[in-house]
Amino acid sequence: MIVRESQVEDVLATYPDIAKEILGIKEELTLLARQKILPSGQRIDLLFVADSRLKLVELKVEKCVSDFVYQVRDYRTELIELQNDNKLVAGGIDAFLLSPEIDKEQRDLCENAEIIPREYLPQDVLDAFFARLRNFANFITLKPADHGLWHLNLSNRLLYALVKKMAKNELAVEIGLSVSTVGSYLRLVSDLHLVETTDDKKYRLSDLGKKYVWGKDTKAPIEFISDEQAKTLQDFIIKDPFVSRTI
User: Fold this and answer.
1) Together in a domain, 73 and 183
2) Residue 239, pLDDT score
3) Rounded Cα gap, residues 169 and 97, in angstroms
4) pLDDT at 149 over 50
5) GO MF terms on file (predicted)?
């Protein structure tokens, strides 16, 4: 499976504990900036602060080459210049270069440039992200912004009823729930891109929703989420871990 840099960056920016593990440090991390634009116009992937030191993090999802080392070196130089101009908080700067494969030549370059090389597996970062999601019911627990805590599996009845486009009140009659409850579930599954709204203000399954419904276990209770359904959602989120505000 191909993992994009932006996916790894999303996870590390959102979960400092995962970033700590990848960087191999014990101090508590606070994200200071993401994609910070430097005077040269270049962008730093991640900039953390830990205690009184800055942690410059440049991440790659391919084998390390010399240009990556020079890139991090130049970024640190620009940060120091910003500090000298009082445009960035003071403090020592630890520069990290993350790559799945760093050979001896590149490690020597890093050492000479006082850059800390860290080998990591991009898939491990996503696995750590999903490990946190597995703390919730079946696959994931979701929080619609205005309706407290809901479990995705409770929406199965609604999703399975959408064999054709339907209005909210039609769905309420079909599945025997109040219009208010149906509205809550519709907001939830819409945020997950499982359902979409038509021009005539009715609801229908999206392509992702159809795939999710097709993956159900017909022999299991309606609230059960099958492995195939969980995999469908997982693959969707892997493409963009923060595609939905409910996750």
Assistant:
1) no
2) 66
3) 55
4) no
5) nucleic acid binding
Residues 6+ apart with CB under 8 A from 174: 161, 166
**Number of domains the chain contains:** 2
**Mean pLDDT across the chain:** 85
Read off the pLDDT of residues 78-101 as tens digits, 9 standing for 90 and up. Answer: 999 999 999 999 999 999 999 999
Would 224 be classed as within a structural domain?
yes
Pairing outcome for strands 115-119 and 93-99: parallel
125 and 144, same domain (yes or no): no
CA angle 125-33-93, nearest 5°? 90
Would you tell me how many other CB atoms lie within 10 Å of the CB of residue 61?
20
Number of continuous H segments (helices) and E segments (strands) in the chain: 10, 9
Per-residue confidence (pLDDT) for residue 25, from 0 to 100: 92
126 and 27 in a single domain? The answer is yes
In terms of domains, do 33 and 123 share one?
yes
Count of C-beta atoms within a 10 Å radius of residue 95: 23
Distance (Å, whole) CA 108 – CA 226: 49
What does the angle CA 55 – CA 23 – CA 10 come to, to the nearest 5 degrees?
80
State the Cα–Cα distance between residues 156 and 237, nearest whole angstrom: 19
Q: In one letter, which amino acid is 113?
A: A
Select from 82, 103, 130 the last residue of a domain. 130
Assess whether pLDDT exceeds 90 at residue 177.
no
Q: For position 45, which CATH number holds?
A: 3.40.1350.10
Given a cut of 60, is residue 74 above it in pLDDT?
A: yes
The helix (run of H) or strand (run of E) holding residue 196 is: strand 195-197
Backbone angles phi, psi at 11, to 5 degrees: -70, -50
Domain of 43 in residue numbering reads as 5-130
